[in-house]
Amino acid sequence: MRSRGWRGSACGDTNPTNEPIARSWKRRTWPSRCHWKHSNSGVCDFPARPGLSALTQSVLWSPAVVPSVLTLAPAPEHLSLGEAPPLSPLDITRDSPEGELAFYGGDSPLQTLMMPGSDPTKPVVAMIPFDADMLGRIETLTRLWRSLRGQRPPPDTRMTQQQRRRLRRMIQAADGHMNGASYREIAIAIYGEPRISAESWKTSPLRASVIGLVKGGLDAINGGYLNMLRHRRRS
């Protein structure tokens, strides 16, 4: 059953459990945002539609906070690139102060930043800074390189399947908490009534688990989600 979170919430757009958390609490009314201002959250100033899941729309990010956004520039004349495959067509493009933000579809969708003067139909080079995120950028570049050549790209390693499942539970738990659900109500929605009723709630390890999910979800909402957009840094 689809959970009944408020329109635009994670619960309203995901289906992580069989029980709706939001059925038992009073929904809050949130003020609408009429003006879009610059923030340090990493996402660009033009809005995403809050009523749609992130899986059904494209959200463009600043490369300053999401290293997997590949910065591309015109290839210098002294480089012999041979038959370099074009990047076009790019699915979605938006102008930004840094250049043109775009999505390259292919078998492994990813985002690019085309520096001023770049032409996706002509040879380009990727700019890879020597910083702590260099290996993550190289991994993303490898995915693009293989996709351009019709090869199967390697998977995105920023999040494992287990981490994705936990993230869904964290966001669902935080959504319920912000709408007034008790920890026990959240636990029932996530783990099911029979499992929760089988033991004392006060001493149940699932109680501690739900408290941790709520805390993790709130931390993610308050900016911690940015850590999920980076590759794990290697020492």
UniProtKB/TrEMBL annotation:
Residues 127-230 form the T6SS Transcription factor RovC-like DNA binding domain. Residues 1-21 are annotated as: Disordered. It holds the Pfam family RovC_DNA-bd. InterPro entries: RovC-like_DNA-bd (IPR018754). This is T6SS Transcription factor RovC-like DNA binding domain-containing protein. It comes from Manganibacter manganicus.
